[in-house]
Design a protein that fits this description.
With about 230 residues, the protein is α/β, with parallel strands linked by helices. Helix content is about 50%, strand content about 10%. Strand 1, helix 1 and strand 2 form a beta-alpha-beta unit.
Length: about 230
């Protein structure tokens, strides 16, 4: 990405929002294009300001972060903004919903300034950013609350039969929290090839983000909660 990363900050707590905005505005290469105190305002500002990254709080009165994320991504022209959800707890069931809605990952609110700025830079550059171990725990915790793959009675699960054996391998390793570099090293292929396999997998399964690929791997039973990577 060339130029500044345009960021929209969404949080219903004024002091937290002000702190995030102040930190981001002081950082080189980042431009804060707006701040919103609720989901409805976030949807409106996202359409008007066309941010690259949205820092999205989850628990807000009225329209919450999950609904706002889904609405923003459904309405956004390409390239759609990358949504980085903010949460107080690393095992928050609402974060799972945000990932399913298309968010690129999540960040804990008690993360330090350096981690926040690194997260914005990574997501703004097109990467998914979430601590793999935390994300894996999150999805596993949700999976244990269901009766099994697809046990939440939601939408039909994607058909993994459309994937090649290599694409399945890559999907498994992504679900285990490995980075593209880790996967390339393990499978003796280049990072570019990993990205190609991932892009084809997401296209075949009609997914919008790496985070959704992680969720699908667990929901379909391709990866089981608690099993070793």
């Amino acid at each position: 990405m060339t130029g500044s990363i345009k960021v929209l900050v969404v949080d219903d707590q004024f002091l937290i929002r002000a702190g995030l905005v102040g930190l981001l505005r002081a950082a080189p290469g980042i431009e804060v294009v707006g701040e919103a105190g609720d989901g409805d305002e976030a949807v409106e500002l996202a359409a008007r300001t066309r941010p690259d990254v949205i820092l999205m709080d989850i628990r807000m009165p009225g329209t919450n972060g999950i609904t706002a994320t889904a609405r923003i991504l459904a309405q956004a022209p390409e390239p759609a903004p990358r949504v980085l959800v903010l949460t107080t707890f690393d095992l928050d069931e609402y974060v799972y919903g945000a990932l399913r809605a298309g968010a690129s990952g999540f960040l804990l609110k008690d993360s330090g300034p350096e981690r926040l700025l690194a997260a914005v830079a990574a997501v703004g550059g097109g990467d998914a950013l979430f601590a793999p171990s935390i994300t894996r725990r999150l999805v596993e915790a949700f999976a244990r609350q269901t009766e099994g793959p697809g046990g939440d009675g939601g939408e039909p699960l994607p058909d993994l039969a459309a994937l090649t054996l290599r694409e399945v391998e890559v999907l498994k390793l992504i679900a285990r929290g490995l980075t593209n570099a880790d996967i390339a090293e393990r499978l003796y292929i280049s990072e570019a090839t990993v990205k190609t396999h991932l892009n084809r997998t997401m296209s075949k399964l009609d997914l919008d983000s790496r985070a959704q690929a992680v969720v699908v791997a667990y929901e379909t039973g391709l990866v089981r909660p608690g099993t070793p990577g």
